[in-house]
Amino acid sequence: MSEMRALVVDDEPDLRELLDITLSRMGLDVDTAENLAEARRMLSANHDYALCLTDMRLPDGNGLSLIKEINRDHSHLPVAMITAYGKVEDAVTALKYGAFDFVSKPVDLEVLRNMVRTALKLRREEFEAPAKKKPKEEATDKDAGEQESQGQSELMEQLVGRSQAMDRVRKTIRKLARSQAPVLISGESGTGKELAARLIHDLGPRADGPFVAVNCGAIPSELMESEFFGHIKGSFTGADADKEGLFQAANGGTLFLDEVADLPLAMQVKLLRVIQEKSVRPVGGREEKKIDVRILSATHKQLKPLVESGDFRNDLYYRLNVIELPMPSLRDRRGDIRLLAEHFLKVIGDQWGEPPRKLSTGAMEALQTHRFSGNVRELVNILQRAVTLCEGDEISTDDLDLEKSPLPEEGVDVSPPEDRSLDDYIEDIERRILENALREAKYNKTEAARQLGISFRSLRYKLKKYEID
Questions:
Q1: Cα–Cα distance between 226 and 59 in angstroms, integer?
Q2: Tell me, what DSSP letter sits at residue 173?
Q3: Which of 4, 38, 69, 98 lies 20 to 30 angstroms, CA to CA, from 259?
Q4: What angle do CA 9, 14, 20 make, to 5 degrees?
């Protein structure tokens, strides 16, 4: 093929013509079909399509069935859904079925072009025009492809572990990197949710664009709209200049919303609108600004109970949780602890300019039986402290300074003493956890909140509640 080719499936002649003209101007050869039967014939005859756009409702069936078939029979072909205006449910369903992305009617050409450019990045190498090259040049191209594959493998090596749980995570990340669907990364604090988000970005077609991460619990509610959407000079007291928001900063790339459960309801409404409209209006501004951003979000909390209690919007939940990526806790992959410990000891040694320390047999056994409430992040902190305390080349069990009374495993009786209420007993446990976290963070409250997996506001409230200074 001398050009990349796209397939447009829609029963409206005017829309087919508009899409044909727009894609042709972007350098694509375009085939059009007005129903499913015609689209299936074209797909059977031509396996080299770089992109497919299909309407939701067609004369002889539903576009979702075509998405299913393409994902089954042409797994490397990005397919995007054309949905009716306001039909967010259709868009979410299409993404769950494997659609690369969606565009709403009436089609915004700028949004369409952004989507097409992103999709074509996935297929560009497969559709580069074949040129007459010397054998040496061909070998060079092959080497370049191998280097790219090796680069992706090196990125994946950041997820240390050989357990089945981590193999599933790596496999899922590779699939998610090819999509533009919103992903909710769930898991306990310290399981590597931000690392997973960065890998989804780095392995996907937006890798050349920015990756912007924000902790939703760390932004004061009164500044949240300005931080996310920007503001115009003079729009409020202290707005001395125009300011770009996080969405604009992430334009062309990925916006990672960490601890999304901490968003106040008022901000949830605004966020939902931005995701649906793919545009933002700065505080004090009159004009909408189009954005091209992929949304990844994460939380250590269970969102479903928050939806049921009314603290998290149901419509936003289903918009963010199109695909969920659960990150396993360290106790669910204890077989990886040895690899993780050896890896981080080498990293610590490189950072500190020292040979990596070794763990004694007893120290390794202690780590493998320890109940990690803070998961991988806690493991790293323990090892950093141990390297500091260690006087020789080998880390002992005492150097680890693990809790002498780890949290009980499941099935162990944790009843409070008879002379105390359950509330008092739980409050004592929470107080000790807060005090330990502060000591671990050298009394840096922001770091302590991060280690505990709660917002800074929540930490401040709890410290005041327990009168911890």
A1: 46
A2: H
A3: 98
A4: 55
Burial (CB count <10 Å: 0-12, 13-18, 19+), residue 107: middle
CA 381 to mean position of chain CA atoms: 24
User: To the nearest 10°, the Cα dihedral for 317, 319, 324, 327?
Assistant: -60
CA distance between the termini of the chain? 70
Long-range CB contacts (< 8 A, 24+ apart) of 152-158?
A: 152/203, 155/199, 155/202, 155/203, 156/199, 156/203, 158/195, 158/199
Sequence-ordered list of residues with C-beta below 8 angstroms from that of 91, at least 6 positions apart, any chain = 81, 83, 102, 104
pTM over 0.85: no
264's CB contacts (< 8 A; 6+ apart) are: 221, 224
Cα 305 from Cα 310, distance rounded (Å): 9
Structure tokens at 456: 């800074």
Per residue of the chain (469 residues), give pLDDT as tens: 346 899 999 999 999 999 999 999 999 999 999 999 999 999 998 878 999 999 999 999 999 999 999 999 998 899 999 988 667 788 888 998 889 998 888 898 998 999 999 988 877 644 443 433 334 344 444 444 454 455 567 788 889 999 999 999 999 999 999 899 999 999 999 999 999 999 999 999 999 999 999 999 889 888 899 999 988 887 777 777 888 899 999 999 999 999 999 999 999 999 999 988 889 988 888 888 899 999 999 999 989 999 999 999 999 999 999 999 999 999 899 999 999 999 999 999 998 888 999 999 999 999 998 988 889 999 999 999 999 888 889 999 999 988 643 444 444 444 555 555 556 667 777 788 888 888 888 788 888 888 887 777 778 878 888 888 7
Contacts of 467 by beta carbon, 8 Å cutoff, 6+ apart: none
CA angle 263, 215, 378 (to 5 degrees): 120
The dihedrals phi and psi of 29, each to the nearest 5 degrees, come to: -80, 140
Q: Which helix (H) or strand (E) holds 318?
A: helix 314-320
